[in-house]
Structure formats: structure tokens, C-alpha cells
Description:
Layout: E1 2-3, H1 27-31, E2 49-55, E3 61-67, H2 69-72, E4 77-82, E5 104-105, E6 111-117, H3 120-127, E7 131-136, H4 143-146, E8 166-168, H5 171-177, E9 180-188, E10 200-206, E11 209-214, H6 219-230, E12 237-240, H7 256-268, E13 272-275, H8 278-284, E14 291-299, E15 305-316, E16 337-346, H9 360-378, H10 382-388, H11 407-418, E17 431-432, E18 435-447, E19 453-459, E20 465-468, H12 478-490, E21 497-500, H13 517-540, E22 548-550, E23 553-556, E24 559-562, H14 563-566, E25 572-580, H15 583-586, E26 590-602, E27 608-618, H16 625-644, E28 650-651, E29 656-657, E30 675-680, H17 704-716, H18 735-750
Parallel strand pairs: 1-25, 2-13, 11-12, 15-16, 20-21, 27-30
Antiparallel strand pairs: 2-6, 3-5, 3-7, 4-6, 8-16, 9-14, 10-11, 10-13, 14-15, 17-18, 18-26, 19-20, 19-25, 22-23, 23-24, 26-27, 28-29
Helix pairs in contact: 9-17, 12-13, 16-17
This protein binds dioxothiomolybdenum(VI) ion.
The site of dioxothiomolybdenum(VI) ion has 10 residues, from loops.
Amino acid sequence: MKFDTPAGINPIDRMKVVGVAHDRVDGKFKTTGMAPYAYERHDVAPGQLYGFILGSAIAKGHIAAIHTTHAESAPGVRAVVTYANAGKLGKGSKNTANLLAGPEIEHYHQAVAIVVADTFEAARSAAALIDVDYVRGTGHFDLAAAAPTAPLHSEDKDKSKPAVLDRVGDFEAAFAAAPVTLDATYTTPDEAHAMMEPFATVASWSGDKLTVWTSNQMIAWAHDDLAQTLGIAKENLRVNSPFIGGGFGGKLFLRADAVMAALGAKAAGRPVKVAMTRPMMFNNSTHRPATIQRIRLGATRGGKLTSISHISTSGNLPDGSPETATAQTKLLYAAPNRLIGTRLAVLDLPEGNAMRAPGEASGLMALEIAMDEMAEKLGMDPVEFRIVNDTQEDPEKPGRLFSQRQLIRCLRDGAARFDWSARNPRPGNTRDGDQLIGLGVATAFRNNLNVTSGARVRLGHDGVVTVETDMTDIGTGSYTIIAQTAAEMMGVPLDRVVVRLGDSSFPVSAGSGGQFGAGSSTSGVYAACVKLREAIAQNLGVNSADAVFEDGHVRSGNRRVALADAVRGGEIVAEDTMHWGDLDKEYQQSTFGAHFVEVAVDAFTGEIRVRRMLAVCAAGRVLNPKTARSQVIGAMTMGVGGALMEELAVDTRFGFFVNHDLAGYEVPVHADIPHQEVIFLDEADDKVSPMKAKGIGELGLCGVAAAVANAVYNATGVRVRDYPITLDKHLEKLPALIQALTIRNVCEKAK
Ligand code: MOS
């Protein structure tokens, strides 16, 4: 099916099952331990051995020699695989660095060996016996040092064209002429996905056929890239990933656990399981790259933006991509003169790549502080300032409308709900005992993407509808919304639908990423169900166009037939894929929201506590209010981490992330998170898909950190432009402390 004209009325609009707050259909499996994660697949292949990955001790250089004889003769060891005996490997099209190093080393903790042994402990202790002679090369690890000479990055596939900044109007002239201007630089640090479940794989060979049970968001990408890396035919590889303990973008790509498990299993002649240890994950895998973002805003005294510039610099390994932190600035606020672009430095740190809302999450951390600073300069309320600069058309392509854009309503509804009018616009002036109280707001914005997505649907003789697609559920609720979609389309209750996901033998879906999973994968299921309805109608000899599927029956004219009657001759199977036309070119498809945050900052210690949070989201139809809300409160929690805690500390001499475990890399826990409220505007966007739903999982994160930062500023009057906002960055400037120090000085003078 191709979606190329706005959706008309369709069976989803009945909203009997879709749009209802159903519990997760996989919830009981997860809470009772019955959902098997990759490392728990004890049952799938007998005689599993344990693999332990050894990571490189240097960040850049090469291996002169690697001595494995001691490890090979250690007790219980079955195989040791390094580049020296792995055979020729390819590289996955989506991997920037090789997943097995050697002789070149591209980054710290890049895998240099796997030891396979009878037990995990034997493999781990033997790995310590591997002796590697490294020759250290010269690497670049310091973004701030590399930024001034970082070249512009071109989005153009044609690399022969020189990269240029995106220009609309004459930014320089308009900025110079603007009566009110802001020119500020903001930084965001490297961040880790820090998902609960580590990278893990069980690999089993049968002749030249390989099966992996792994933890991956994108089955088809993992399938392609593992086949390509190992140099095997795709038909000889099966990838399974039915349950995933979080990914946040870290599991979009094939990683070393899968490659090394496959190599280890081949060498040992038995199935091998590998889980990456937590301290390996931070430097071995990908992370959200740090940014340095310069924002310039020019406005009239009335608060109309006349000029916007946003230039973001990030780093990556050679051939890596930049953090696209300017993405939202192209679309969010009106201004006739614009100058936007990204710079990319070569850094030899571990690979930077997508982490939840790549681009906008980092970009809004900067832009939405800049908007707060500018509102203050203008003497305007920050909510009103955003409303004044709203646009209903693409600012770079006048006349091109948004499919739906209710940012103003999100801001207004949120302000009313949060009692925003009680905010004191004078920062540092609201006290509650020893606490300085502040309120902050930020716009949420994230693009909506549609990705080709297929599914197979069967109507069994028992009347059960089974959906099969290689879609994944990374804790997001995919199982549930797909079941709801099939139930709605086929007119059966939710408990008559079985959903099977995460298997490369199923039709290729969108997978889970870029908040495109929910809208795209359910649209694929929609397409397959349309075909199944046609097949059933044909079987029953009724016209599919006027057939109504309801209460387990098909109704057409004055005939009403039980679905089960349609499958007397055996089950009926239908398969289809949703393809997307040009509606996303005709209309800009984006999601919107507003985040409101209240913080309390201890006037003497500088400790920051978040007191209240509200998100108002406009993202088309909400397929399941319960799972959607869970997505948003999880994202808001992640935003608090980004604002106040998360930072990979870079050792700029040796090129690695120092705090590579969950003791040193801090994320919020329950005690850090206060009351959170989420409101969804009642929308249905007919330009995006027959589901009329857009992504929500990343929108919930976008803007949160800036709302926290703005609340902290409102509380303290100290502006911090470098994330995370840890108390050392404002402690010495806090008003109460300055007051206390002054009193002490006065007392001392008086003595
Ligand atoms: Mo998302 S960072 O595309 O999983």
C-alpha cells in the first residue's frame, strides 16, 4: 500500500481498541520474568559456552603483536579469536569503526579479542592473560581544541560539492541592525545511552547457517550488517530479538557482542553467549556526541525575531556524522533572515551516534535557553515570546505548511495548567525557607518520520489473528499498539490477537528508532490487515468495500457471518508493506509540545531538586494513552538527567570516557523525580498516515533539559550555559552565599 493522499475515514477511526489505555500485552511476561532477554536464551541452543570480550587499552594506534598462548592454555578455554585468526571481515554499512580491531586501533575499548570458555569466570580470567603490544598513535580527543578549525559539514550525499551554511535572507545585515540581540555559546557533553540491558548475544552455527538471539532495535539493519561483516549470505543468517531491555538508540546498530559471539562460536564449534560488561559498554559502543553551539538572535523591541543563527560543532571518528543539533532551528521559529549549519571535527573518541531524539534533544538544550535569555532581554514573558514567533509555515520554504502545528495551544494550555502566571519574572527572588524557587518553560519539537514497514497477518481457524513483523519493542509498547491496530482493523477483541516481533524471518518493518516506530509499524499492520479483509471478503463472497468487521463478524448488506466461517478451508494469510509518498515533502510533519518545570535550589549548598514537571504534547492521534504517557514520563526523566547529571568525562590525553560505569555515569533515580503530568492534545493528523498518529517517545525528551535550566536560572539568577548544571557551576554566585560572604567580610572588618 502506498500512502500518498491524506487519510480519509477508515476503520481505525472507530477507536474501539486503538486510542484506549490498554495495559501492555507483554506486561505480565516482563513482570514475571517470562520474557526471555538475549542472555537468558539458555534453551535455544544446547551446549552454550561463554565469551568474554577484551577491549583495546589504547585509543589510537595499532597492534604490533598479540600473544594469546597463555590464554589459550588456561583452564576451560575453548577458543581465542583475534584479528590474526578471525579471517577476513567486512564492515557493516552502518558502523563507523570496525567491530573487531586489528592491527589498527580506532578507539579505546574497541574489541581486540574474544575468549570462549566453559564458564564466564574462566573466559574472563583468561582474557587477562592476553598480552597485546600496542603502538600508540597520535589521536585527537578534545572537542573544544578541535572546534575552531572544524570544517563545515555538508548534508549533501555528493561530497564533491563544498559544504555551505544554510542561508535565508541576509542574516549578518539583519542581526547588525536588530535593536535587541543575543550572541551566546552553549555546550552539551557526551552522553551514554545507559540502557538497563547490556549488549548481549547468543550465537549458534549449524553448518554454514548462523542464528543469533540478540538485543537490537533494527532487525533488518543487524541482519544486513552481520551478514556483511561475516561475509555470509543473508539467507544463511537469522536474527532474533523479541524482547529488549532498552536501547535509546544504542541498539540501532550491529555491535561487537553479536560479531564476537558469532566468531567465537565458529572457532569453538559450539554456541556461544556474550554479554558486554557494563564497564565495556561506554567506550566500546556509541554515545551521543558533545556539542558546542553558538546561537545568535536578533529581534525588534516588540519581540519579533528578525534573524536567527545556529551553528553547532561536534566531533566524530573519520567518516562519522555530526550531531544535527540545528535540526529544530530550521523549523521552529519565524525569522526572515537565517544562518544555520553544522561543523564536524575528527575526534578519535568512541563512535558518536544517535541517542534518543538525536539532533533536537541536544539542539533544544541550547536554543531554548537562548529563547529564555532573549525573552528576558526583551522584558517579555518567555511563553509569550515563543507564541509571538510561532509560524505555521516552514521558515525556510514559505508556503510549505505543517501538516498540523498546535505549539501555541501546548504553551497556553500548559501555562494555565502549571499556574505559570504566578512565576516571578525577577530571578533569584522567590524563597521557600532556604530554597530558591524557579519556574522554567521550553518548547518541545521533534520531526515525525515515516519509514517503510511491512507485516504479515493470519486469521487462524480458531479466529485468532496473528501478526508477524520484524518490528521491535524496546520497552515502548510496540506489542500492544500493534495488537490494538490489528484488533481494530479485524473487529476482534484485543485478546484474540497474537503479536510476534523481532525475527528476521518476518516481513521487514520500520524497526524502533527516531520515534518513527509506532506510526510506521502500525501503518504496515494496517496495510496487511486491509489485504486480509479483502481476502476474507472474497472468501465469503461479499464486497470488501462495504464489509464491516465488527464483534468477530463480517457484515455486508443484510449478511452477517462469523469470522471463523471464513477460515473453514484453512487459515488466511495476507502480507503487505506500507510505502510512503510525497506528503512529507508537501507538508512538514513534526510533533510539538511544551515543557514546564519547577525547581528548588538550596540557597546555601546550591543543590538542585526538581519539584514539578508538566508536558503538553501535540503529536497526532494517541494510539494508547497509557503507553504514550509512559514514553513521555520516561523521556522527561531522561531530560532531568541531561539537565543535571549526565556527562561522560573525557580524558583528553588518552582518549576515553573515564566514568564508564553506572556509579560514575549518573542518571536520575526515583528519588530525583517529582510529580510528572502529561497532557496530550486531542489530535488526528490525516497527512501523516492512516493511523493519523505521530511519534511521541522522543518528543517527550526534547526541550526538557532547557526547561530545567531556565527554572534554575529563574530560581538563582545565575545563568549556566554548560550542561550538566551541577552545583559547582553556580554555587559561588548564589545570592544567599554572596550575602553570607559579605556579612562575614563586614564582621571581620569590624573586629
Ligand atoms: Mo533512536 S536514537 O533513533 O533509537
